[in-house]
Design a protein that fits this description.
By secondary structure, the protein is an alpha+beta fold. 40% of the residues lie in helices and 21% in strands. The strands form two sheets. Strands 1, 2, 3, 4, 5, 7, 8, 9, 10, 11, 12 and 14 form a twelve-stranded mixed sheet that branches. It has a two-stranded antiparallel ribbon with strand order 6-13. The protein is globular, with a radius of gyration of 21 Å.
Length: 348
């Protein structure tokens, strides 16, 4: 969770935020009208916060309240996902819509290669069965462009002509909390508007694909895009890359289409508010829920299991100090929030 940014309101009651108070002299990013007036700060939360809260109260405590990460946390999968995002954004960029699929592919390969050089210790060549290396990602980009060469979607542009990719948004859930995130893209496909999410996973199976039919992140992003852009969003396109085994387009590259009803969008908001209220209760009472079924979720041991088993003891503090690092708030802000955003009421 990230708190106490600078918030401003324009004459049309649109709200924006910034890390710099000087933004008060600027015009609104939505309606282009100013001046902006500073308002009281609010607490913010992302999808990952609510997802971790669903997983386990104590997990949320360690990860979001204390901002703890393992000293040896493996970021290889995260880096692979980031590079895949870069490749997908380049391949579908509206700036390259006049180019052939082969030209787009070469540009995408160039971009992820450039980003990989900046990524510390990311494998360049195939080194295991996890499908996580620059060589594997390039091979997957080629197979993706071949598989979907006649099914590429068109990225929409904003009113000022900018492509609707990497949309950094914030929306008011109620008077006390703002929901923030980044939508990968808003596109038109076969005459309908969709939000697009690029996903990578090590568990690409039927249950994982079914997950996106009810996934709360997808639900929230569809609602936010409709509110933010003022257009009808017909659903979501989720392009998924499997990060495991030998590269195989029939098994590792999957596209899922999903829709949401108006009732589902309304229910998501109410549930998010209830979850946040429960989080505040746990914080105030210092009674953090424990979900033991999450201790070995996805056949992996929770990274906070050791200190959790020693919950309430003096030894727990020693383990936290020796095995974990505190993630800096600024690092979290730069990773999740990038640049300034617009804040809109998420209502019916």
């Amino acid at each position: 969770m990230i708190e106490h940014q600078f918030y401003f309101s324009c004459p049309n009651n649109h709200i924006s935020f910034s890390h710099q108070i000087e933004q008060a002299s600027e015009a609104c990013s939505i309606c282009k009208i100013g001046p902006l007036t500073r308002i009281e700060p609010r607490t913010t939360a992302s999808h990952s916060f609510f997802s971790d809260l669903d997983r386990c109260g104590r997990y949320s405590f360690y990860r979001h309240e204390l901002q703890l990460r393992l000293n040896h946390e493996n970021k290889e999968a995260m880096d692979a996902g980031t590079l895949w995002h870069v490749g997908m954004q380049t391949l579908h960029s509206s700036q390259h819509k006049e180019k052939t699929i082969q030209e787009r592919l070469l540009l995408a390969i160039k971009e992820i290669s450039k980003e990989a050089e900046k990524t510390k210790n990311f494998p360049m060549t195939k080194n295991d069965s996890k499908n996580r290396s620059l060589e594997c990602l390039i091979e997957n980009l080629y197979l993706y462009s071949k598989k979907y060469q006649f099914q590429l979607f068109e990225v929409l542009n904003s009113l000022d002509g900018k492509p609707l990719t990497e949309i950094n948004f914030a929306t008011l859930l109620d008077d006390s909390i703002i929901y923030r995130g980044i939508i990968d893209a808003v596109v038109n496909y076969q005459g309908k508007n969709y939000v697009v999410e690029y996903k990578s996973t090590s568990m690409l199976n039927s249950p994982m694909l079914e997950k996106y039919r009810i996934d709360s992140q997808i639900t929230s992003y569809i609602g936010v895009a409709q509110e933010l852009l003022g257009i009808k969003i017909d659903g979501a396109i989720v392009d998924i890359l499997g990060l495991y085994g030998k590269v195989d387009p029939s098994r590792h590259l999957v596209r899922v289409f999903t829709t949401r009803t108006k009732k589902q969008l309304q229910d998501w908001k109410l549930q998010a508010i209830r979850k946040y209220q429960h989080f505040l209760w746990m914080r105030e009472s210092k009674n953090w829920d424990q979900n033991t079924s999450a201790c070995t979720m996805w056949n992996r041991t929770c990274e906070y299991l050791e200190p959790c088993l020693l919950w309430g003891t003096s030894i727990q503090k020693n383990i936290l100090q020796s095995n974990y690092l505190i993630q800096e708030r600024r690092e979290l802000q730069e990773r999740e929030l990038r640049k300034d955003s617009a804040v809109l009421n998420f209502e019916e």
